[in-house]
Amino acid sequence: MITTLIAVDGSDHSLRAVDAVCRLAAAGLAMDVHVLNVQIPVESGHVRMFVEADAIEDYYRQEGLAALAEACARLDRAGVKYTRHLAVGHVADTIAHYATRLAAEQVVMGSHGRGALRHALMGSVATDVLRRTDAAVTLVR
Question: For 28-46, how does the pLDDT look when each residue is reduced to its tens digit (9 = 90+)?
Fold first, then answer.
């Protein structure tokens, strides 16, 4: 059984990654599927001065659940069993951390398909995950 981590941000790109995993499962690949959404932390001290920690945590939870909703619905329709994870942190670091923690053999992510120049200037979560994990990283366009 292959432990598979799908990084989901709610975008069409990440949903295509979910669909790719559903196709692999339908083809008979035995997988232990984990679906992860990472919320970017509120870094501003000003926000934390005026908003209670519980409200910020609730915000992260609601945003994470919303981002995972369609991915989980697609996995449910395909009959793929999975474990859902919500996290807050630097996106690439957190994905790599979960891949290590779960001993994932593969990470599946959607690619936003940006051009080479834009990628060189801005970097890429996928590239950062590749650098931070030993798991195979599959990008789905």
Answer: 999 999 999 999 987 666 6
